[in-house]
Amino acid sequence: MPAVHTLPIREPFWRWLSRFPPDPIVDQDNGADRVAIIMDDRDDDVVRRVYANAITVLGPTWNHRFLRQHGGGWAEYNRLFFSSEFWGGIPEAFVLIYQRDTVLFRRVPDAAFQWDMIGAPCGAIGTQHWTMNGGLSLRRRAAMLDMLQIEDTTSEPEDRFFTRVLRHWGGRIPDLQTAAQFAAESGPCIMGRPVGVHGTDKHYMSDEQGWQLVNDALAEIA
Fold it and tell me: Backbone phi, then psi, for 62, in 5-degree steps?
């Protein structure tokens, strides 16, 4: 019986997620130098499907981990990402961060690993101050540690902080078009066939755009 769409995920993206079983989450250590990490305080049907989606699409060339938050909301999330202990405790060189409101369509291309951080464009798009959204982002662990040593953290969201300081200190970050080709979030910045989408429960893009992304991905595996 197909899964019923009763969850706060928009219909196009639920069509994609419903293909993946909500099996109990089990961390996978495949001896890789890259890890995909989802962090949430819930272990529900959506999180399990999103986790299964990542394992299926990325495959065994990645390690996979679920980090369970214990309350605290965004303040706790930011505190963790601003912690050198957090980044220093990750043994892998590259970290794909994704969230409950994410779907993955394709494997991460080799070209993405040249960057210190790459994520879906958001914020002040159209200016030089746009942000790489951290909710679906690939990061070089060493670069995160370097930036925390160079500059004190602020009250701003962690993705805005890392985008800003990497840009200021000459970190390797992509231009807006390259970032948009990696991950999609906002309607004006959808380009090509991205790795995935962040914000599947929000109306950052139109239904037509969402269905186009999903149908393109489904056609590739037909």
Answer: -120, 150
**CA 58 distance to own-chain centroid:** 13
Dihedrals phi, psi of 101, to nearest 5 degrees: -95, 50
Residue whose entry in the numeric block shows the structure tokens 């299926």? 56
Sign of CA dihedral 217, 14, 51, 119: positive
73: pLDDT confidence band, cut at 50, 70 and 90? confident
CA distance 49 to 190: 24
Tokens of residue 97, six digits: 């961060």
3 confidence band (pLDDT: 50, 70, 90): very low
pLDDT tens per residue, range 53-68: 999 999 999 999 999 8
**Which structural domains are found in the chain, ordered by start?**
11-213 (3.90.550)
Return the pLDDT at 41.
Answer: 85
Segment 85-109 shows an average pLDDT of 97
Helices (H), the chain: 11-17, 45-58, 73-81, 84-88, 141-150, 158-168, 176-182, 207-221
